Amino acid sequence: MAVYPLPDVAADLSAHRILVTNDDGFTSEGIELLERAARRLSDDVWLVAPEYEQSGTGHSLTLTQPLRFRALDERHFAVRGTPTDCVLLAVNQIIEGRRPTLVLSGVNRGANMGEDITYSGTVAAAMEGTLLGIPSIALSQSIYPGATSIDWGAASECLESVVRWIVSVGWGREVLMNVNFPDARRGAVTGMEITLQGQRDPADILFDERVDTRGQTYFWIGYRRSREELHDDTDIKAVREGRVSVTPLHLDLTHIEARRLLQEAAEGLGGV
To answer: H or E segment at 165?
Structure first.
């Protein structure tokens, strides 16, 4: 496990056209924080985000109903659709002229780590940007399970410097960056770690059973904080211990070793 100091890089991103989006909705605190940071990076910032919260929608598209958006002003648009819809509309319909050169998605209210990334609309927006050939970063602020309020201290302190550093380093096609900020006050972040995607204990999933006014049972799905031993180098452990987690994610989900085993087994079937 290697822990690094928070980067202090004054990379010039002023030439970038930045698309800001999220899954919490265009009025969320997190996207307001992100847009303010983006405007310190560049004067060319566009916000295209869901009209309503779309948490947990993953990499989904709106296919069975009309897809609509409304302009709040020249560079702010609310979409009645998913985060993926927002990125597709922004790049192909809304933003005229030069395409965005950087997609920033978030800042999500709650971490997106481990298997959660497959559910996350925040990560999905960055995934769609990557599929369109645009460098994309998903950003999320961890909160303690059950918390009724959120301290944006870590994200507000570290976001700009981390984004500048990641963009200055650069990364390959078909890769997106997943950044998670710890639940820590401003000044309390203990560093940055380049992490692996972790894995949650399935026992962490929480079903909160309730009964409505008609006597019908319903559930809220959530997570309880794990008490298991956390593995080194993972996003979950880094964030739990107060560090910013930066995880590169690859769009190619092929498992090379399993493919090799299947090919070896298939050789016995004959064929050409």
So the answer is: helix 153-169
